[in-house]
């Protein structure tokens, strides 16, 4: 297709059309991810390249964007790959609406990742988790923060799954939680119906949930008439609030540790509301999930069991979540071999 047969459209308009076209095909969190990654391309088009028409996009310009994005903020290879992968799908969609030349998406050269590039760094390790949970169980027992960390660590579930739980999804007799995909009432699961499952709980976690429900949970319903397990005074807790709670409690200065980088807590900006994520030593909800999965694997829980419990594919489990050292893996294999 030549430029003469293309139909003019600005990069920003093309992006909005793309997001609108995909909004009924993917979850809101996935759509938000597309928006976040594509906004850098739009920024480059408008402020750097001054490209006003997608028709003028070429393979050479895409290479220039790749270089700019790599150097803009010194991106890790895995982050750059994610940005370019989203852009590649977007450009292919633009081909279908006659916005760019046919086959242009194939001219995006993806970075070659080494094994260590494919792995994220953030993780809550077992020792830190033990200290944090010991503190919460003693000083913040059955608080919302305690429940959040307890469930994240014990189940390794995703943030969206945690937020989706209703009081009726908790079965204290069978010591289990039901995770159900309910997109029509604002609680989708990342993998849709394939992410639905029953999650077994320990007796200790059940005691925490019982006391939370009986004494500290706000007795409210959400806008759909459901009774969320995790609540604020106004209804179901938002994902951003869960994230803030995790950033707050995983700061070493919160649960009794000294600041690893020597900051004075009275002067540190990460102690101020809205800035907890600026702590250089705390972790995100996904880092707790990664730590939980590694903890389960390190305690000889079979990979298939962990895969099913955490709703993560075996290949993804190996690349992105299993942070055991090679020494630990070897010793675990040795234990099995000694019984052969």
TrEMBL record:
Ranges for domain Core-binding (CB): 9-95
Residue ranges of every copy of the Tyr recombinase domain listed in the record: 119-334
Any one Gene Ontology BP term: DNA recombination
CDD domains cross-referenced by the UniProt entry: DNA_BRE_C (cd00397)
Pfam families linked: Phage_int_SAM_1 (PF02899), Phage_integrase (PF00589)
Gene Ontology molecular function, alphabetical: DNA binding
Source organism superkingdom: Archaea
Keyword match DNA-binding: yes
Key words of the record: DNA integration, DNA recombination, DNA-binding
Keyword Signal: no
InterPro entries referenced in this protein's UniProt entry, alphabetically: CB, DNA_brk_join_enz, Integrase-like_cat_sf, Integrase_catalytic, Integrase_recombinase_N, Integrase_SAM-like_N, Tyrosine_recombinase_XerCD
Family annotation (PANTHER family): INTEGRASE_RECOMBINASE PROTEIN MJ0367-RELATED, PHAGE INTEGRASE-RELATED
Name of this chain's protein: Integrase family protein
């Amino acid at each position: 297709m030549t430029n003469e047969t293309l139909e003019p459209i600005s990069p920003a308009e093309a992006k909005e059309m793309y997001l609108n076209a995909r909004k009924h095909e993917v979850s809101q969190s996935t759509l938000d991810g597309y928006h976040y990654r594509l906004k850098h391309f739009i920024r480059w088009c408008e402020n750097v390249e001054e490209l006003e028409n997608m028709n003028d996009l070429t393979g050479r310009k895409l290479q220039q964007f790749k270089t700019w994005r790599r150097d803009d903020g010194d991106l890790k290879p895995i982050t750059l790959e994610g940005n370019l992968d989203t852009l590649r799908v977007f450009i292919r969609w633009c081909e279908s609406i006659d916005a760019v030349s046919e086959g242009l998406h194939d001219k995006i050269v993806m970075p070659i990742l080494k094994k260590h590039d494919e792995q994220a760094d953030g993780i809550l390790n077992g020792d830190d988790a033990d200290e944090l949970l010991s503190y919460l169980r003693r000083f913040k027992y059955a608080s919302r923060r305690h429940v959040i960390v307890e469930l994240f660590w014990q189940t390794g579930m995703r943030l969206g799954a945690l937020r989706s739980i209703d009081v009726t999804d908790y079965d204290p007799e069978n010591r289990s939680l039901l995770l159900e995909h309910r997109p029509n009432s604002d609680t989708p699961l990342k993998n849709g119906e394939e992410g639905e499952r029953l999650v077994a709980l320990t007796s200790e976690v059940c005691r925490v949930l019982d006391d939370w429900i009986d004494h500290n949970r706000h007795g409210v319903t959400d806008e759909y008439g459901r009774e969320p397990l995790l609540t604020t005074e106004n209804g179901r807790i938002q994902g951003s609030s869960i994230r803030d709670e995790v950033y707050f409690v995983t700061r070493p200065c919160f649960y009794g540790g000294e600041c690893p980088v020597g900051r004075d807590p009275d002067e540190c900006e990460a102690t101020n509301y809205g800035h907890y994520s600026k702590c250089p030593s705390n972790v995100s909800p996904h880092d707790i999930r990664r730590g939980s999965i590694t903890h389960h694997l390190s305690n000889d829980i079979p990979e298939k069991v962990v895969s099913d419990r955490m709703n993560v594919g075996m290949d993804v489990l190996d690349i992105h979540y299993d942070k055991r050292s090679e020494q630990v893996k070897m010793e675990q294999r040795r234990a099995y071999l000694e019984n052969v």
